[in-house]
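Forum > Structural Biology > Help requests

Title: Can anyone predict the 3D structure of NAD(P)H-dependent oxidoreductase?

Hi all, first post here. I have the sequence for NAD(P)H-dependent oxidoreductase but no way to get a structure on my laptop. I'd be grateful if someone could post the structure tokens.
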Amino acid sequence: MSLVDKLQWRYATKKYDPTKKLSAAQLEELLDAVQLSPSSIGLQHYKILVIENPEIRAKLREAGNNQSQITDASQLFVFAAITNLNEEYAKEHINLVAKTRKVNRDTLAGFENMITGAIKSQSADQLLVWAQKQAYIALGVLITAAADLGVDSTPMEGFNAAKFDEILGLAEKGLTSTVIAAVGFRAEDDAYSKLTKVRKPKNELFIHI
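Reply #1:
Sure, ran it for you. Structure tokens for NAD(P)H-dependent oxidoreductase below:
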């Protein structure tokens, strides 16, 4: 199938088969894809928690409007934005660039100044929104990669972020939960899997200029 065919196949799965789990290879491929997600200036100013612990997931389900996907899917991904984006984070990114590309760090001074300037020019609230937007890009990559692998997924915003942060101890890690996604395999009796996908026609969605 083409990627478009696979995106036609996918849907926001409402009911998972808890007996079906991703293989280690499937999970690793998803992680590889999300690791490669684009982000502004390449900063990846978020972390992604991959949660399998059933006790933790039961607590998260309570904080997630009792949505069964949280406990029944193979894994739960929690995309958490970095709340303390600062100059030190910029320095660490430049260190990584220099190490990865095997270049003298001094040659990256202009790039580092640009990143630092972008951070200094924004308020704490603006920096958080910036990080959260990047997390959503990673979410989109996860959903697309899952479809390509024949794995079901459910992006979810209906949860109490403050309670998620408390359960997962995110505040002390300088993080806050932004969006979550369940991944796994649909139950045979999930009626939503039989529904025709509803999308705006192209002539209403796209504006060609």
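The beta strands are 46-51, 75-82, 152-156, 175-184. The first strand starts at residue 46 and ends at 51.
Shout if anything looks off.
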